[in-house]
Amino acid sequence: MGKEVERKFLVTSTAWRELAEANIRILQFYLAAGPGRTVRIRISDGGSAKLTLKFGSKARERDEFEYSIPLWEAVEMLDFAIGRVIEKTRHHVRHRGYLYEIDVFGGPLAGLVIAELETPEDVPDEMLPDWLGREVTGESKFYNASLALGGIPEIAA
Q1: CA of 48: how far to CAs of 6, 117, 130, in Å?
Q2: Does the pLDDT of residue 123 top 80, yes or no?
Q3: Tens of pLDDT, residues 55-81
């Protein structure tokens, strides 16, 4: 079991793009979701898949269990997806020693760009990159399960 400790931010400019080290095409969907728990499948670059279980309702910290699964099984489970299937490209960007994962959403969520910072310590505001906008940690409408199962949030940086 791992602890997922993360902060989320809306992204307000494209200045991060010149710093991107990697990008991964992701197809993500949920098989089950309830208060404080989710079961999801993520297919990365059409070549590998993971099953992830998350537990907890704290805004910044949850228990996470993740397992590699055969790609063909993940593709079969698409038939059991609840809500919308999330399409996004994840970019890795380093800034002042921290790794940011920037998700650029496609499909019905096109236009939404969210940066995640997974770190157990609080990063002071003056250490955050200028291209980050409003922090949305704790705003459930910006969590992937809500994006898949709920409405499309109005993007207001």
Answers
A1: 24, 23, 33
A2: yes
A3: 987 667 788 899 999 999 999 999 999
Reported pTM: 0.90
Are the C-beta atoms of 89 and 24 separated by less than 8 Å? yes
- Reported in sequence order, the residue ranges of 19-157 that DSSP labels E, i.e. its strands, are 20-34, 37-44, 48-55, 61-69, 82-95, 98-105, 113-118, 132-135
Is residue 40 within 8 Å of 49, Cβ to Cβ?
no
The one catalytic residue in 30, 67, 98, 143 is 30
Report the distance separating Cα 85 and Cα 128, nearest Å. 31
* pLDDT at site 156: 43
Nearest to 4 by CA among 70, 76, 60: 60
Contact residues for 133 (Cβ-Cβ < 8 A; gap 6+): 9, 10, 11, 12, 157
Rg of the Cα trace of the chain?
A: 15
Q: Please say if 67 is a catalytic residue.
A: no
Please tell me the predicted confidence (pLDDT) of residue 2.
Answer: 59
